[in-house]
């Protein structure tokens, strides 16, 4: 049997009364500035995820330059990919306190710094720190806000919007592969990384485009969703009671904290405007006190939301489907990353370099990946289609391709399998949609932070494991078989859970709301 979102999601309040009140929809939700958010997220995926998918070019340069084992060298790419995703929960804290825009701008500068410092690397271990950690943390600080902002601005076309924005990964993999190959050939890999660092400063511009929605705008989005779906995002019966009760308690606690801080702010404002004569030095001290109080209020509120999502009674881990989703994420991402990192070496082993140079297999994955995300997004937005079912079917196709890829030793057969890998991996655009269906928009940043953290662990361990297996067996076959079987285990965990089924709008309830 299938369970609807009523049985799976989270409900942090009773919106039935709010839903009965007429409200004017915000033009920026599902339109207007929302499409600028999609453009910003699209460029972020090109500059971050696309560049990471093209690291196979730099990986071969590092092998020749430093003459280290494949397993050790692969850790550079894995650290960059893994840390980008692993820092997700901590970036969720930054977003709660500073907002998406500031977090993304700081991350863009940090990412560019990591690329530039890596140009002066003297050994692989230096790259661990500069490229793996510095650039990786910067990438994470831009990537999560880019995904979260799209989820906040869209309600009816979420899957399509996420699909369009995440196609930047495919475009980026195609463009960055060609760009890095050209730069390495013409200027050497060190200058190539320096130039890429300068290009990465455009991430700051992308962050500046992430204009935050006001709280009233977000509430309007909830009203629209409550009118168009029946009891959307309800929790499992036991979890819902716990979550609702904790939500009330946390709101009361936040209200008390806000009241205390507002009293301080009001007192400062009275002193400033009450006609009391003060020296310039004292007034300067009062302004500092006001600024500190405002900052304290923001930090407390953000930390309270972040802490309750992970460790409170309303913890996201009380949702068993979400926990199964995390287990799946621990095994899934490495199966997609391993081909990108090691395909150039596999092609060289099969003596297919001449054909691969004409049209690289990684470029085939990247191009088809673009169409996969858009098509799967359009299909998932259809009212009669379950996003969960589309998500599972794409996963089955991908794991089948991973298990059969080592059996293909001709360019044409490898190209077909790579095309299927690219299309089926388009399910990445559905991950934020599925996550939002499970926990709601309010907790999307923290929840998706956990998911990409699990993906990061998978990306961190996958390529070095494949390189280690190669150093022992001198073949990549067992790497694909083992990662594919672990991926299948994650899919089985998802199959053991009820699926999310899209609900149809109820005409009567809409008429009742209008009355």
TrEMBL record:
One of its GO terms (cellular component) is membrane. The lineage of its organism: Eukaryota, Metazoa, Chordata, Craniata, Vertebrata. Keywords: Membrane, Transmembrane, Transmembrane helix. It comes from the Eukaryota. It is a multi-pass membrane protein. InterPro entries: MFS, MFS_dom, MFS_trans_sf, Proton-linked_MCT. Residues 37-502 form the Major facilitator superfamily (MFS) profile domain. This is MOT14 protein. One of its GO terms (molecular function) is monocarboxylic acid transmembrane transporter activity. The chain crosses the membrane at residues 33-55, 75-96, 103-121, 127-148, 160-180, 192-210, 310-338, 358-376, 388-405, 411-434, 446-466, 478-500. It is found in: Membrane. The gene is Slc16a14.
């Amino acid at each position: 049997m299938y369970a609807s979102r009523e049985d799976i999601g989270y409900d942090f309040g009773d919106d039935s009364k709010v839903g009965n009140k007429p409200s004017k929809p915000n033009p920026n939700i599902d339109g207007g500035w929302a499409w600028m958010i999609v453009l910003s997220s699209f460029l972020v995926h090109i500059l971050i995820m696309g560049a990471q998918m093209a690291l196979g070019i730099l990986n071969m340069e590092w092998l020749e330059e430093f003459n280290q084992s494949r397993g050790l060298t692969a850790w550079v790419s894995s650290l960059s990919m893994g840390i980008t995703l692993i820092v997700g929960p901590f970036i969720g804290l930054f977003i709660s306190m500073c907002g998406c825009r500031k977090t993304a701008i700081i991350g863009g500068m940090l990412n560019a710094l990591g690329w530039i410092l890596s140009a002066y690397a003297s050994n692989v271990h230096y790259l661990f720190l500069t490229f793996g950690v510095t650039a990786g943390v910067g990438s994470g600080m831009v990537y999560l806000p880019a995904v979260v902002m799209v989820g906040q601005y869209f309600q009816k076309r979420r899957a399509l919007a996420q699909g369009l924005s995440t196609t930047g990964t495919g475009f980026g993999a195609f463009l960055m592969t060609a760009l890095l190959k050209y730069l390495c050939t013409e200027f050497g890999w060190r200058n190539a990384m320096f130039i890429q660092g300068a290009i990465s400063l455009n991430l700051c511009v992308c962050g500046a485009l992430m204009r935050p929605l006001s709280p009233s705008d977000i509430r309007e989005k909830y009203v629209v969703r409550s009118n168009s779906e029946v009891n959307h995002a309800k929790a499992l019966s036991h979890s819902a009671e716990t979550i609702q009760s904790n939500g009330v308690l946390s709101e009361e606690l936040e209200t008390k904290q806000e009241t205390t801080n507002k009293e301080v702010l009001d007192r400062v404002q009275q002193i400033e405007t009450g006609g009391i004569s003060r020296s310039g030095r004292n007034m300067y001290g009062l302004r500092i006190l006001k600024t500190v109080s405002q900052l304290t209020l923001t930090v407390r509120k953000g930390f309270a939301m972040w802490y309750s999502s992970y460790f409170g009674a309303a913890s996201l881990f009380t949702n068993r489907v979400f926990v199964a989703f995390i287990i799946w994420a621990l095994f899934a991402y490495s199966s997609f990353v391993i081909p990108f990192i090691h395909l150039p070496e596999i092609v060289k082993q099969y003596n297919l370099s001449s054909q691969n140079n004409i049209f690289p297999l990684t470029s085939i994955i990247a191009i088809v990946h673009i169409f996969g995300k858009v098509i799967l997004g359009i299909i998932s937005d259809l009212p009669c289609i379950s996003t969960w079912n589309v998500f599972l079917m794409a996963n089955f196709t991908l794991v089948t391709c991973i298990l059969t890829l080592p059996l293909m030793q001709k360019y044409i057969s490898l190209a077909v399998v790579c095309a299927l890998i690219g299309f089926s991996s388009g399910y990445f655009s559905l991950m934020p949609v599925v996550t939002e269906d499970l926990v709601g928009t309010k907790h999307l940043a923290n929840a998706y932070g956990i998911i990409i953290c699990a993906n990061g662990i998978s990306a961190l361990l996958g390529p070095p494991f494949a390189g280690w297996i190669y150093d022992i067996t001198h073949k990549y076959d067992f790497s694909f078989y083992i990662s594919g079987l672990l991926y299948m285990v994650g899919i089985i965990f998802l199959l053991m859970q009820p699926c999310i089924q899209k609900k149809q709008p109820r005409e009567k309830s809409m008429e009742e709301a209008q009355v």
